[in-house]
Amino acid sequence: MNYLEPRTDVPAIDDWSTRLILRDTRLPAEQRIHSLIAVLTFVVCFFLPMTPGNVAALVVLAFLLLMTVVGPLIGMAGTRAKRSGLLDGPWRRLPAAVAENDDEPWDVLLADGLVLKGSFHDLPDMVLDRGEVFVCGPDAEGRAMIRAAGFTAMRPAEVGTGEYRAKERLDRPLGRPRDDPAVRQVINATWVFKTTWVMFVVTLVVAGVLVALSVSPLAPTGLVTAALVALPLLDFPMLLASMRRQRRAERAVEHAECWTPVPIRLFPEKAGHHVAGIAELPGGPALVRFPAPVLDVVANIAATSVMWIAGRHENLIAVGVPHVNALTYAVVRPDGAAQDGDPMPWFRRLRSRKPLGLP
Questions:
Q1: Whole-angstrom Cα distance, residue 297 to residue 330?
Q2: Which of 19, 150, 266, 276 could lock 289 by a disulfide, CB 3.0 to 4.6 Å apart?
Q3: Planar angle of CA 149, 153, 158, nearest 5 degrees
Q4: Phi-psi map region of 69: left, alpha, beta (phi>0 left; psi -120 to 50 alpha)
Q5: 151 near 296, Cβ under 8 Å?
Q6: For residues 68 and 25, what is the distance between their CA atoms, to the nearest angstrom?
Q7: Under a CB-based contact definition with an 8 Å cutoff, are residues 24 and 354 in contact?
Q8: Tens-level pLDDT at each residue, the chain (359 residues)
Q9: DSSP for 163-210, written as a single string
Q10: How far apart are CA 35 and CA 47, in angstroms?
């Protein structure tokens, strides 16, 4: 198996897949405008009579602004490592094993004489399979960053002490996609779809209550807040279509008997273009578009020029990476002769996302 791996011959900060992880976490321009309006409205609330609509606006805006602040904190570990200079050196490929430590609340890796402790989530399974880990550091304070093949995530680690016994390596046959525990984990995460519906209902109710409380007596701040709360509802039809496609892809995985690797050449990323490429499918070359690209999947495709098909239903294919808990869908387009890219319709370009940073 060829997986995405960080380069070990350049400083980590110059490795494209590391930059992919550290990509700009600032809010898009549209969200920054929304946040500015929310801040101004929040301040104005204190200068108006405390009517029910104004009080409700104050509470809702405080919650919205809190969520805006919390979002950028998700990638704080990588940003902190970059600022401290921990990523100024290259990634080192080290032989590694996973320690048996069921009585401890953290993960432990044994990497070429180092005992690395931390919360590594899904990385230890890949380390156990391949017997290696990629490490930056440790620095003078014993802090390090680790990565595993196939994943775009990097995790902070601390150098620890102690004697541990290494777990035995387990062979993971390719098998059927639905029998892959990592893929099974994605398929079983039905809470994601339920949460989306709950958020839609909650948003609708909150916006409706704000309007009802702000009409009489009139509370302009409540009406402005209701508009800010309701704005995400405009994206719900597109989100609903994406959810339906994802469910179709997961049903395709359930009926697939094997993984199918196919060569693919991704187009260079351009603003206003889909993530897409020309794939050598069993029926011949075709344009393959990723409407909702998952970072782990497209990064592995960019690094290996191989797309792993986990199932197919009509013109929709489920795409994943064996033993990596990431699954997305791609749409096979009939115009497979395209060579320069797959531009979005004009109305999609108005709100297109920034390029991911693929090579």
A1: 11
A2: 276
A3: 95
A4: alpha
A5: yes
A6: 12
A7: yes
A8: 899 999 999 999 999 999 988 875 556 677 778 889 999 999 999 999 999 999 999 999 999 988 877 666 666 777 788 888 899 999 999 999 999 987 888 999 999 889 999 999 889 999 999 999 999 989 889 999 999 999 999 999 999 888 889 998 878 888 899 999 999 999 888 777 788 889 899 999 999 999 999 998 899 999 999 999 998 888 888 888 888 999 999 999 999 999 999 999 999 988 888 899 999 998 889 999 999 899 999 999 999 999 999 999 888 999 999 999 999 999 998 765 566 677 777 666 666 677 788 88
A9: --PBPPP-------GGG-HHHHHHHT-THHHHHHHHHHHHHHHHHHHH
A10: 19
* End-to-end Cα spacing for the chain: 21
Q: Strand 316-321 and strand 92-98: pairing?
A: unpaired
240 vs 144: CA distance, rounded Å: 40
Give the helix/strand (H/E) hosting 313: strand 306-313
